[in-house]
Amino acid sequence: MKILTVENISRSFGGIKANKNISFEVEQGSILGVIGPNGAGKSTLFDLITGYTKANSGTVNFFANNISGLRPDQISALGIGRTFQKLKPFADQTLLENVMIGCFVKESNIKKARDRALEIIDFVDLIDKRHHYAKELSTGQRKRLEMARAMAIEPKLLLMDEVTGGVDQRTVPGLVELIKKMKRSGVTIITIEHNMNIIMEISDNILALDQGQRIAYGTPKQIQNNKNVVDSYLGTYDAT
Amino acid sequence: MLDKLSLAKQEPVWKNNNTVLYFLSSTVLLLFCLPLFDINSFYLHLFIMIFMHSVMAQSWNVVAGFSGQISLGHGLFFGIGAYATSFLFTEYGITPWIGIVFGMFVSGIIAILIGIPMLRLHGHYFAIATLLIAISFSLVFRRWDLVGAASGLWIPILPADSWIALQFNSSKVPYYYIFLVFFLTTFLLSWMLSRSKLGYRLRAVRDDPQAASSLCINVSYYKIIAYVISAMMMAPMGSLFAQYILVIDPATVFNIEISIMVLLITVLGGTGNIWGPLLGTVILIPISEYTRIYLGGTGGAVDLILYGLILMLICVFRPNGLISFFNRDVIDRKQKR
């Protein structure tokens, strides 16, 4: 079953075409990896899906509903969560409070929201840090915080922007394992990644972008052998 | 043996600090008993001003500290409250108690009307817009004959003290208790707000609007809610102040210094929590009143020099306000060990 269908979506900023007629679909329960060099339009695509940027043309369908033009809060209320490339924790609040704010979407009772937040914090393996302020956490821990906060709204679809970006190598395997764990919990995931080993390992399908355009879409194996992707990432060797 | 999650769930949602609770209870009891000690009217006035400014600062704290919108024209709602009560009483003889509710209602409506277009503005644009709107209201009231134009409204002085007319000419004690009740009620409401779902959501809007909207929070809606609550908290102080001095005019109740004062108090004490405005008031209002006594009239502007000096020191050394000396960073760290 298709959880998300993006059809010919485009967005320009002045003369720069950040996204040009991009189309793809996401199967419920799968992980879609989005790859592309810097400036390829990956984060803009996330912003278009989640309503932070309005598309110039094209549509986004969540299940059967057209969500184009909705506000971010309306889209998240439908069950689309996200994390941000540039981390956005509520810095002066504790980890527990950060996650509780997400839990209030489904639960108005403070005690029940607190208990649910604790379960999610335990899920992301930060239970010992629950009373720490977000600003006191390491980058890796703040990545987990954002994942926990996004999980708190009980999303059906979760968009994660460079979860392993900017963290040290020792932290990466834990974050990758967490993404897999989130998938096992039933959440459909779209994730932007620069690390090709990770994206090949976790993704069911991969969408490759370059200069705002879709250059490939397929399984990790198909993408690995795709000439456009190889050219885009490695550059074309011209023997002449 | 219980796992970490089960242990965490067994923790109380709020950690009650018994020392603070005892201190608060004793202070409230003392405040209620204070007039029984026959203290002179200056000290009663001083406490009345502390209660009044504390409520006003608490009000400003809701919009600035909780939702992150710096309003430079919040005195507007003080003026609205003052005029609502005084106008109804002088023109129609309606008790100020109803006038207080009417003032809150009008302030709430004005906050919505102002808030809808203005809260789309961010940072200093919002601050400047609030300042200009407050000045505009002042100018309108200066030329509005129905409300006495520049000479304002003179509330008729009654021959005897009256709880219905909220006039007490023989003693300040009734005013003391009225302001005290409003002060305690506002403090309690702010405390409840800070621990409510609304409070959490407002802080999320303040800390990062984009992240907040990813959690189903309609940022504009919550900003307006905060603005309206704040306006409705401010208005009764204008109403009570009008009953306290019995004469109001635009230059007094729409004075931009009111807005600046509540800002200074809150920034000095610390924004975003309920204790900061209280602490700021307890420090700044006595300075203001004593400089007024010893240096005459407006305090010879020495109070303003002192405010400026204190504010500079705070900005440099304690940007989170004086309350940061007692803040959760320090207290909670003990719990984390």
Structure overview:
The complex is a heterodimer of chains A (240) and B (337). Chain A has helices at 42-50, 72-78, 95-103, 110-123, 139-152, 172-184, 196-202, 220-224, 227-234; strands spanning 2-13, 16-27, 31-35, 57-62, 65-66, 80-82, 157-161, 188-192, 205-210, 213-218. Chain A has 240 residues and is of the alpha/beta class. Chain A has a domain at 2-85 and 153-234: Rossmann fold (3-Layer(aba) Sandwich). In chain A, helix 3 (95-103) packs across helix 4. Helices cover 71% and strands 1% of the residues of chain B. Chain B has helices spanning 4-10, 18-33, 41-66, 75-92, 96-118, 123-143, 173-194, 197-207, 209-213, 219-245, 250-253, 256-269, 275-295, 302-317, 328-336; strands at 153-154, 247-248. Chain B has a two-stranded antiparallel sheet. Chain B starts with a helix and ends with a helix. The A-B interface holds A 50, 52, 71-74, 76-77, 81-82, 84, 88-94, 97, 100-102, 104-105, 108, 110-111, 113-115, 118-119, 122, 127-128, 130-133, 149-150, 152-153 and B 4-5, 8-9, 13, 195-197, 200-201, 203-204, 207-208, 210-219, 272, 329, 332, 335-336.
Q: In order across it, which strands form the biggest sheet of chain A?
A: 6-7-8-3-9-10
Strand content of chain A: 25-35%
Q: Could you state the order of secondary-structure elements of chain A as H and E?
A: EEEHEEHEHHHEHEHEEHH
Q: Biggest interface between protein chains, with counts per chain?
A: A-B, 43 and 29 residues
Q: By helix and strand content of chain B, what is the structural category?
A: mainly alpha
Shape of chain A: globular
Helix content bin of chain B = over 70%
Q: What's the β-strand tally of chain A?
A: 10
| First-to-last CA distance of chain A | 48 Å
Give a quick account of the main beta sheet of chain B: strands, pairing sense, barrel closure: 2 strands, antiparallel
Report the structural category of chain A: alpha/beta
Rg estimate of chain B, integer Å: 21 Å
CATH class of the domain at 2-85 and 153-234 in chain A: Alpha Beta
Helix content of chain A: 25-40%
